[in-house]
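User: I'm new to structure prediction. If I give you an amino acid sequence, what do you actually give back? Let's try with this one:
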Amino acid sequence: MDQFEMDREDAKITAWILTGLRHEAIRLSKMNRQLREHELLILNQSVVEDVRGAATEMIDLIATQSDTLEEVEINLFVQSVLTLLTLQQQKVIILTVLEGAKEQEVAEEMGISQPAVHQLKTRALNRLRKSLIMEYA
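Assistant: Good question. You get back a string of structure tokens that encode the predicted 3D arrangement of the chain. For your 137 residues, that looks like this:
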């Protein structure tokens, strides 16, 4: 093998290695972009006991196929709005409005009458409506 053939063979091997590296870089870039689209870093934060008495904690990563950022923003907005209500009102709104429970089921769970649940729900919704109208008017 003369010098020219060796240089040509080295060039082929170098080109093959560079092509492989380029493909691997593209693959890793795509994978990284997909991970960033499906994961959202949020604060590790203990959340006060929820209305059913179960303590929850936010986690480091949320992975999902849907628009995670929008869901997180909505959840944070809902959490901040619920702080305007009393604990009983929060529980009623979460169970009836957000989780879709019937007022009678909530009444049995809370140990109060169905009309009392309805009244708590009505007052809570009115308070939220007034607060949001004042804030965004």
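You can read the tokens as a compact description of the fold. Here is one thing that stands out. The first strand starts at residue 39 and ends at 41.
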